[in-house]
């Protein structure tokens, strides 16, 4: 379907009205407990996703992550799609809480895969990384820690992942500073050795470093061929500029990624100046409308996109469509997990990449039985 065809069908799409909104909570489990990061104790093995389904008067439906409340749903019932969504921008302010289900709904009504509705400027082969290598070793000696993280890489590899992000920052809270830095570096080297030379290895300090400990860690990891350093410390114009200068002086090709947690008002100024390379604001909270605009905004500066997605399983579907729609995308954050009830047989994972399907919408759904059970246990349905 070309642009003229889409324009010709939009009036009918906009005229549809939302006559039913349903919400459930899906529950899944990871293959192992997830440990600490630099700030927060153990994350455990569980994963859950709030899922909203929109239905329209003409029989259309859209599904996606949303934390919409029942009261908010009541305020949206009876509204036309055109009141809530307009191309090329996307969701209106009134529909920000249902941004992902709404994009899925419009793509399905137009019989388009979501990435084509978004623009189809990227590759449908989207690289993922396993983001589940946390601080799991605080009670272990060095040899046992090396074995543990070798096993964690092997587990990720068995689940189809080929790239890995490693939590660092033990000295921020859980260990003394220098022993923590030494253990961080030991773990990074263990992951690099286990993953092989072709793997991209990222480190994430969850703002647990100072400038001095961030640069010290990079020195200790020299030769590990790090791909990016995520959240080294709270974003700061002077310190981020100094960190990039330090990286360049050492002739390292290490990117700086940030923006996930409460970025400051001058965040995009730092992206524009090249002191932060990759924007990582959260995907499901910000939504496709925000991310589509942001990706276009930073592309001209050489800025890259790798939205934060930890804590969600179903994020990967709409997220991969977004990745396939922009030219400045990096990698998709994910981790091994099982989410019963998901229908995603059109998706293929191959050599560490998700292959985005050509099915309408975001390309996933929830089994009717699981959805019905979710409505009975903590979910809701609001109708016109």
Considering the chains and any ligands shown, give keywords for the structure:
384 residues; alpha/beta; Enolase-like, domain 1; TIM Barrel; 2 domains; 10-stranded mixed sheet; 4-stranded antiparallel sheet; globular
Kindly describe this structure:
It contains 14 helices and 18 strands. The model has no long low-confidence stretch (mean pLDDT 97). The protein has 384 residues and is α/β, with parallel strands linked by helices. Strand 2 (44-56) and strand 3 (61-65) form a beta hairpin. It folds into two domains: 3-111 and 367-383, Enolase-like, N-terminal domain (Enolase-like, domain 1); 125-365, TIM Barrel (Alpha-Beta Barrel). The longest helix has 19 residues, at 177-195. The protein starts with a helix and ends with a strand. The chain has helices spanning 3-15, 70-76, 81-84, 99-109, 114-118, 142-158, 170-173, 177-195, 211-220, 237-249, 267-272, 283-299, 315-323, 368-376, and strands at residues 18-34, 44-56, 61-65, 85-86, 90-91, 125-133, 164-167, 201-204, 226-230, 255-258, 278-279, 304-305, 332-334, 342-343, 348-350, 353-355, 365-366, 380-383. Strands 6, 7, 8, 9, 10, 11, 12, 13, 15 and 16 form a ten-stranded mixed beta sheet that branches. A four-stranded antiparallel beta sheet has the order 3-2-1-18, with helices on both faces.
